[in-house]
Amino acid sequence: MSAPLTSTPRSDGYRMHAEWEPHRGTWLIWPERSDNWRNGAKPAQAAFAHVAETIAAAEPVTVCVSAGQYVNARERLSDAVRLVEMSSNDSWIRDCGPTFLVNDAGRVRGVDWKFNAWGGLEVGLYFPWDADDLVGEKVLDLERDQRYAPDFVLEGGSIDVDGQGTVLTTEECLLHGNRNPEMSRELIEWHLREYLNAETIIWLPRGVYLDETNGHVDNFARFVRPGQVMLTWTDDESDPQYEISNEALTILREAKDARGRELEITLVHQPGPLFSTDAEARGVDHVPGVQPRVAGVRLAGSYVNSYFANGIVVLPVFDDPHDEAAVETYGQFFPERRIVTVPGREILLGGGNVHCVTQQEPFGGHTL
Ligand code: KQY
Q: If residue 186 lies in a helix (H) or strand (E), which one and from where to where?
């Protein structure tokens, strides 16, 4: 185990970069567990491969894969994708991977948070999660990046930053009794300020309706540039999502970012609502202690769960009437980038989407 730094990023002048800043590359983890991914994870592997190849056309991609899946993954991925053998419990590197940081000289470090599978023994999604919890450290080791390791449970999908000192997050997740129950809100804020180098934290009460992560903000509301936020929305007042989005909108309208700017908010209408089918649920193995996949359950589908890579945006679409408007909105957010759509349903069936399965490493600009 490499020894972590005992200072904090804030005191050392490192900050979490915004996702739209230049990347050195992107990390993913190869999916394989058949108690989360249907049909032996084959459709999920095709979906992850599609995402990896899409990003690899824009920047270097590394996929972490178990020893048992190495040969299979190598055959299903092109040579443009680097494969690294690494153990994990599932495939959500946004959440179990490191949060990369940069300083003004372009040097890169990372935060290796504690990971407890979205809630630990009581209501977490699976046990064990020890291999996932080591992913952050292993990735930073491979990159020879120095590591901060606070005693603090946090998933990367539960925070979003503008790279200029503002953090967006949800109370539903960060203040949930299954993450850091012994910590006060003030202490949780202290960790965000110190380890992301932030000034202002904007708390939204809840995330997407029935999101199994306890309302991760990366599926709900995200910065698209400083001062501008996209928010999952529905026009249907009878949909439980309406009240959730509306309360967030009120807060965002009143909020100011770390530089004192008011926020411009763009509403992105949700797909569906989408529900899992009988055939989809039947394809998932039942294992005690692992969240079951049940037919007819409402899926937490969202267009906000996209990924900004160098020169492109990878946007999940659902063969849904709202797809077109989402593509158009992203085109307005990012006129200088290509909006590349990928089928989003398969990853959604596993509980997340494109943003949840990717982790960006900032370019920084330094050489070793
Ligand atoms: O929202 C995310 N960042 C990840 C979703 C993980 C779902 C686990 N089944």
A: helix 185-196
Burial (CB count within 10 angstroms: exposed 0-12, middle 13-18, buried 19+), residue 186: exposed
pLDDT over 50 at 368, yes or no: no
Atom 7 in ligand 1: residue holding the nearest Cα? 351
Residue among 2, 16, 6, 12 at smallest CA distance from 360:
16
Residue with tokens 């299903």: 76
User: Which residue ranges make up each domain of the chain?
Assistant: 9-362
Complete DSSP assignment for 23-51:
EEEEEEE----TTTSTGGGHHHHHHHHHH
173 catalytic? Reply is: no
Within 6 A (CB) of ligand 1 lie 92, 94-95, 125, 157, 212-213, 216, 218-219, 350-352, 356
Number of other residues whose CB lies within 10 A of the CB of residue 56: 21
Angstrom distances, CA of residue 325 to CA of 37, 126, 269, 302, 329:
29, 36, 8, 13, 6
Q: What is the pLDDT of residues 218-247, one digit of tens each?
A: 999 999 999 999 999 999 999 999 999 999
Looking at domain 9-362, its CATH architecture is 5-stranded Propeller (3.75)
Structure confidence by residue, pLDDT tens digits, 299-310 = 999 999 999 999
Report which of 217, 241, 219, 229 is spatially closest to residue 344, judged by C-alpha positions. 219
Tokens of 258: 């770390």
**Buried b or exposed e, range 82-96, using 16+ CB within 10 angstroms:** ebeebbbbbbbbbbb
Residues 311, 55: Cα–Cα separation, whole Å: 10
